[in-house]
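I have been asked to look over a protein record a colleague put together. The record follows directly below this note.
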Amino acid sequence: MTADDRVERGFPHLGTVREAITALHRRLSADGIAQFGASVLPADVAIDDDEELYSAVQRTAAALVRHLHLPEARVIVGFRDMGHAATVELEAGPEYFIELNARFKQHRRDIGAALAHEITHVALHRLDLAFTGTPANEVLTDTVTTYLGAGWLLLDAFRQDALTSQKLGYLTPEEFGYVLAKRADAFAEDPAAWFTSPQAYEAYMAGRKEAAADTRRPPLAAAGWAARRRYAHDRRRGTASPSAPYTLTPGKVAFPCPTCFQRLRLPAARGPLQARCTLCGSLLACDT
């Protein structure tokens, strides 16, 4: 896990984020994901200045292990000087070995965020879920951490002032906000009240806007007038431009589910209809 004061913005990893959400649904199933309906709460991972550091870190790590439904085991956390924010040893167990950057001794408020990312690495290792290449795999880890209810901590670690900036993780702040918005829609949960960083809240709202756009693309019935008109034009031609959010083949339209991004195929030119995603179970109002 990295920490960098050069903060990338926007949505450069959005394609990989969506692939990660699909992969997570395929690995856990809709019923498995439903078990993560409640996010980890601030009180579970907060470390006060007057707490003994090592016992507080152990408590926080144990809370995250429970939240991610990992087997109960001792979490051994140490501190050392290093270039990364944290590392984890992905062995069979039974203990979990995590090292945090020594700077977290003075920045306790972000220990929960660093541990959430590393413990999710353990969860993904046990699920045998990984992407090829370190960058894509780290995006997967951040996405899963967030979608399963612990990644709001990573976004809240994003802070900027006139002299400095800090961000943990590999997703941009807006991408963290996007995944949080997807989770909020799936579980009717609003994490906004948990943010202590105003920059985190702003990024969450930007992510919400991008996530909402997913639900307004043809052939979804909520698509705007201009988008529906373009879809009707493409359907008559029988082909769509490469930038369109759908593809057309004779008699069929294919498009991603706005919840899990599995590709769905429906009969074209059928008018209003409802479709249920076989992966996440979402019931979608469409107009093909």
Remarks:
- The chain is about 40% helix and 15% strand.
- The two ends are 44 Å apart (CA to CA).
- The chain has a mean pLDDT of 93.
- The first helix runs from residue 14 to 34.
